[in-house]
């Protein structure tokens, strides 16, 4: 092992996968040894099997307490679980789910993040750009096409808000 590797990192394949530290948390670059982050999106219905009808209480029951809770600059209540952030209205309605995604699964299609901008341009003629985000009304998502790989799944009623935002 190179001397400049952080303690706990290993190339050994003899250690069980769950015992190896996650390299994904320490780098924005995709690594062959890192687990691929994926978002499974059923547009306007569910993200990774979690329905948009989920309340904050149901989310806590399912995932436990969040790492942090805060109020966003857009006046939504954020429950931050580290790799996923859930944003709710004051009344408990889920608005957005943001997570890092190397791959976005849209039904039976898997789109690598680096190809997402082109995929949206080709398959969603109604897509638009707001505040540096590409927004897809067809697929119910918004993202900034940069190496951070953060993708936001949107509830159906959010598209109008994004569309009304100053360009």
TrEMBL record:
Taxonomy, superkingdom: Bacteria
Region spans: Disordered: 1-23
Protein name: Uncharacterized protein
């Amino acid at each position: 092992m190179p001397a400049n590797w952080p303690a706990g990192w290993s190339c050994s394949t003899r250690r069980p996968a769950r015992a190896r530290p996650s390299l994904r948390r320490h780098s924005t670059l995709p690594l062959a040894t890192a687990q691929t982050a994926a978002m499974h999106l059923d547009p306007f219905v569910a993200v990774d099997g979690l329905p948009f009808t989920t309340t904050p209480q149901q989310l806590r029951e399912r995932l436990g307490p969040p790492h942090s809770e805060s109020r966003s600059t857009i006046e939504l209540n954020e429950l931050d679980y580290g790799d996923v952030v859930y944003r709710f209205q004051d009344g408990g309605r889920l608005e957005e789910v943001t997570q890092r995604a190397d791959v976005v699964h849209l039904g039976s299609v898997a789109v690598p993040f680096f190809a997402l901008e082109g995929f949206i341009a080709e398959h969603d003629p109604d897509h638009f750009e707001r505040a540096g985000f590409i927004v897809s009304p067809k697929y119910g998502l918004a993202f900034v096409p940069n190496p951070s790989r953060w993708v936001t799944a949107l509830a159906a009623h959010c598209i109008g808000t994004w569309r009304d935002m100053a360009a």
